[in-house]
Predict the structure.
Amino acid sequence: MDTNLERLLAATTQNAYPAPPGTFRWRFDSGPAWTEATTASLQLFNSPFGRVYWAWDAWIGSHETKDLFLYSFTLDYTDENVIEKKFSLGEQGLTFSHCYMTSNGGFTCRDALSASVSIKLDPTSGISTGNFEATFSSNLKSPNGVFNLTSNPS
């Protein structure tokens, strides 16, 4: 199983993240209705394959109620310097995924076809602000959103 999928499945099953200060909201096709995540997290991870990366995860719902719906994006860690840049999918390891519960209770993740994330991240303080947009296959809606999160201690 993909390590990112394993990480997301474990986090959402155990609700392992304490609530950090901040927000993560999205809407579809620039519509007027915003959805705010009930759980959101920014963390620095060390993968067992040597990749060190930042992960922004946000979701509504739960496994128990079988209505989990989440967005996740990752960016490679470089150093302790402040990052202030717009990244496109693949640039500096940017990934963007949408995961959700299926009608049979399964957990499915889909990678974005395209995505961009504008980020200001201070690795020392753990404060991150920015906005994002992503496009998925034709049967999934395209989100755009904003975030303001402080990382959880690792």
